[in-house]
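Assess the record.
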Amino acid sequence: MVDQEMIEILQSFLSEARAMIDESEPRLIELQEKNAPGAGVDVETVNAVFRLFHSLKGASSSFGFMNVSTVTHSAETLLDVFRQGKAELRSEQTNILLKVIDFLRESFDSIEQYQIDEAMAASAAALKAELMAAIDALGGKAPSAGVVAPVLPPPAPDMQIEITAEMKSRFATEAQEMLETAEQILLEMEKKPGMSSEKVRDAFRSVHSFKGNCGFMGLADLERLSHKMEEVLERIKDGLLPANANTVKVLLGTLDMLRGGVEDLAKGGTGTLPDAGLMIELVGSMLGVAKPAASALAMPAAPAPQGPAKTAAPVLAQKEIRVNLDKLDVLINLVGELVIAESMVTRCPAIAQLDDERFDRAVHQLRRITADLQDVSMSVRMIPLSSTFRKMTRLVHDLSAKTGKQVKLELVGEETEVDKTVIELIGDPLVHIVRNSLDHGLELPEERRAAGKPETGTLTIEAKHESGEVWILIRDDGRGLNRDKILKKGIEQGLIQGDGPALSDEKIFSLIFEPGFSTADKVTDVSGRGVGMDVVKKNMEKMKGRIDLRSRAGQGTTVILRIPLTLAIIAGMLIRVGRSKYTIPMLTVRESFKASERQITVTPDGQEVVRVREELVPVVRLHALFKKKAALDKIEEGIIIVVEADGKPVAVFADEIIGQQETVIKGLSGYFGNVSGVSGCTILGDGEISLILDVPAVVAALLKSREAMVKNEKH
């Protein structure tokens, strides 16, 4: 039985253990980058990683997580070979150690869910064998079996944990995800029999994890059938079995049966498969007389515990709960409605006339509580970008090895927080942009050397706040975009009409985001199909974000993903223009003032500008932009609000500033479609509607109209 105090200690262990492996992974990659042939071993970094594995080994052993302890002990032994200077570290050993990191992450997830690591027994045995082989090849001394016990037998009856309804529910949810992953790959395999072994390996891993979880849950039929399916996938992965239509058909049938068992369990059943024996025989017949793969990955998981304990174990991760995002959205929407209702009450003219000190105090307290509730509800969805950024470390490492390019990755601003929805949508765009940077942007060492550059290219991923947005910059110092090549391809595909060469670089470069557009001479498994950058564009549209692209030949390319800072509530400045009211996001406001007549002038191209401390700032008349009747015509009679987007200031001319308030962003009705210069609307305290200005779009519209005016004058 696991008591409450033990749960808290275990939770602390998992938190520290995850921090350790997060620290280890970049250090391992750093080791590989530093240890060029003949350069010796960076002993300091090796010692740092060694200490991390050593600490994990001791802590996991004290908790009885012997699968984790066994693997970390073997990894520690491998590192000890390099600590003693007996061999030079090579990419082969680094890759094995990175597998250890992956194994540990999966183990800690399993421990958090089930409180033991028995589901990882097969993976632990396979990885230990691989580590032992690496140690033997280097002439190191393999750890004796007595130092760390191998996989433990099933726990004694008084140590067993009851499989609760909550655990069954979690298992069913995760199992469905694993089976769906495998199914999608099998369907793709049917269309493309020659798919990469990496894809097949993904399906293998999903089924392998499913099998381990079934073993822990005591679902013998599901475990035996998934084990047989795992064997078939391993043969396909190793090229010992063809991935033809018949093979896929049988595997899909197996998946359907496994899914049926999971659904039965979710409905309160036992997960038993009446026809499991027949299906196992059918799948087994596909293996024929081929030799069994010598991988320990095919080992069955440890037997499930027999008999429930008297008391159910408390949930491990009790300080954190999983909440459906839809519920969070409802919560934030309700907080938004509360903000509107509070504004309607506190700004009601009839109530404002009341002269009651107690009522004033109550109103003040209501505003404070509403503001606190708003801050808390918004922060619930905010997550730092660090986890997303760190995933790029592994991606760059793998792509660097695959392309033969030397790359230094720099991560800046990892602590920047964004909405959880943004985290989910930004991952794929980042992967595609990084792939393109390594495949098309950064050069091979010999090319860089010939161009007078360092052999190692630099890829920087940076996050920062800018003008009410979160900017994610992906910058490389490679060859840059080939304007002429992109233009030629655009004309060939009919994407450019008329005078193409006269188009700006920005217009031409934007073609790379069109579906199917690619200038690659050959398609590789890294990029070149013209799909990736289209995904970037679509995901940015979902986030109501924008993409800026800057490139200079021979110097590199910078992609800027500009994402709205918040998707729900903002601080806004309310202004009046004629009979209409508009809201300007406060994060974009630089200053406001009443301009004098001598501060205002008109440029030769007809653009009104206002002088702000020796700087001429162009004026935007909102009534002209939105085709509204103006109450004031002379700028000096109204008010100027200087806003800024992308470092470009613009002076917004309004009749008056009404005030500042918390603004709940509402989407425009489908009847309006996309209104240029407007990002949404809000309901004011008096029930009126105020349009929210999209400041970057307003600035862009002004610059575009000025460019058109200058172009017409030239013609």
